[in-house]
């Protein structure tokens, strides 16, 4: 199979000067006429062929400078169009193709969702619309004319500003859109449909008025207001924080039901998965509102980090994605609570990215080869990419980082560029050398930092030794030391910060250790008594830490650290260790449990802490997180049992108190998605989870909450908890929810997700039945992902069943989905990355299922690529 290498990058011999597209949309088919003005780049040898990309296209006609081309002048097939000897000057190439959007189940290129014509072009979908140089370093201004039946598509949208619209005879009408900003084809978008909308406006910092609109299925308009509010706040934030102003006269968002991803940042015309637009209290949870706010912001921020400055090639994907995730995380931190957001993001990193980085699918944030680019829209590119940008901000400080960003926008606006160019602006703006720091982009694997310390009372010195290593990852046996920023503090016995008179042995700048070697030993002088070190404050680097801190010191940090992230982390580390030990047969002592329980209670009772933070602090680490901590020969049943035992031991003696707290948090105020209310709900639902897992009092509370809930957050939480711990009422609750909510697809998804979490032995059988039901919408990515995603990623007990039935269920489902939508299929398959940490019998069953899948005929490149890496 063909592998593409970064080292082979070369600019194309020809460039596209401008693109004029004419779409004639009809019920049966869509005709696309493209007029591309093309010219050779300086230095191109006359006679060099021009190779345009295509994917499942059939050429209807072709002309050059207005005259039909002779057959010998070109070759064409489904995958491309080659002009054998183009003229050595500027020329206009005109092609025509016919598309069948109705039959496009891959949802790449032009397709139909609920009757609406829409597009998805990133990364390589434009070549499914017309023959083109479909790569991100080809930037051109686009003009789009579209004609469609007025009755089917009264709304006609494309990128940029509307130039004209009008009648086109009979039932037809047309619109012409022009996008003056040169862009790569992956940012192209078009929408034609019968849609409702809400409108608003935003006045920019220079006083320009931007017309905003969100388009959606009729009847859903009322559910778009939170998205609109999020958009306006995002626009204001990017001006305040980064000085970035919006550039077109209009900004449109369209919500569609069939979508391969969350959303897409097409210039001036963002297209969204409707689950990230629609929200009302009866059907959306607090987490849904949070997700909408984040993704609306993310796509909007791409206008500068991604669109105005784009990627030279797809190896540079994290140039736009890592940076834009960093920006959306910062936005949410500023809008809500910074520590709560940080904990949320780190939890996500640890549950999703660390497993990717430590398994068969590991790759650097900037990979150097790929077979299928769609398989590289990963948590490593996105979330680890964001961590790398965050470390840069930590190293340079807020002002230094902003100086670098300003230079980035100034120097590279209108360009397709690279990670090297990105690092260079920070070097130039701050007069620093980031060569070693840059290794974060090219080296895969989560660094492991081992910490040991000692104290010498006689000399009043404290010694801290840090050692870093990265295990080999596929294709990268040797690893280099990274520059790891360690934000830290020393805490004295009374819980207050400790200063020092001197430090030697390494580079320490205020509260930041610049840890850049395999190992470093720092000696602090003037330390009057043994401190407890608080390291990696705010999770200052994406690393795993092992240390010689015992439970007592961890719980001391949980109480006294001035850094809220580390308070949370200390509790997580302490409980992970206890569960992991118990799963491996080494049971805890009563005093360990008593101390942990007391620390949790103290956190709950602390009036100075935010309820949202408390909810995170009392959460017991998920079984998958504990399994990762154990790291090898994992028996998922033993982990689940140990986790349940810990919760029972913790909760048992204080169940009444916890129930009282749970009850005290109930509220009759009208629902609002604001962070304050959402935090109180998450604390109350966290307590419910503890009570259901750890005491008999819980199950009836969950049933009562389910029945009496006044909003979807509480209703869904009660159902999910009942299903997860499989209470006596779980099945009845799931049945009830399905009956009530089957009519709303996005709420049906919640039922699918809760159903997939059930730990009982019949879950696979039930899931098979759900998928086989004749009315199951088996081409819709949201439905498939809602059922299968949570099963492979978090129902370890049933996915990794001893008899292999969970593995086989998934590989069989993947084989079927692959025929419809390879992107969805390959993503579900990545759940098998867990195999290396499982005990051998389960691992073998998993590999058997994968091998049987590999034996099937006609697998997509997407699935074959993941399979080969999993089985390597
Ligand atoms: N830039 C987008 C990534 C993307 C995508 C979006 C929709 C459908 C398929 C897609 N493949 C890749 C989304 C983002 O990161 O903002
Ligand atoms: Zn993005």
TrEMBL record:
All residue ranges annotated as the Peptidase M1 alanyl aminopeptidase C-terminal domain in the record: 551-871
Cofactor(s) the protein requires to work: Zn(2+)
An example Gene Ontology molecular-function term: alanyl aminopeptidase activity
Keyword line: Aminopeptidase, Hydrolase, Metal-binding, Metalloprotease, Protease, Zinc
Every Peptidase M1 alanyl aminopeptidase Ig-like fold domain range: 445-547
Domain Peptidase M1 membrane alanine aminopeptidase per the UniProt entry, residue ranges: 226-437
Pfam families tied to this protein: DUF3458, DUF3458_C, Peptidase_M1, Peptidase_M1_N
Presence of the UniProt keyword Transferase in the record: no
Reactions performed catalytically: Release of an N-terminal amino acid, Xaa-|-Yaa- from a peptide, amide or arylamide. Xaa is preferably Ala, but may be most amino acids including Pro (slow action). When a terminal hydrophobic residue is followed by a prolyl residue, the two may be released as an intact Xaa-Pro dipeptide
EC number of this enzyme: 3.4.11.2
Record-annotated Aminopeptidase N-like N-terminal domain positions: 20-187
CDD domains linked: M1_APN
Entry-linked InterPro entries: Aminopeptidase_N-like_N, Aminopeptidase_N-like_N_sf, PepN_Ig-like_sf, Peptidase_M1, Peptidase_M1_dom, Peptidase_M1_pepN, Peptidase_M1_pepN_C, Peptidase_M1_pepN_C_sf
Signal listed as a keyword: no
Homology family: Belongs to the peptidase M1 family.
Full protein name: Aminopeptidase N
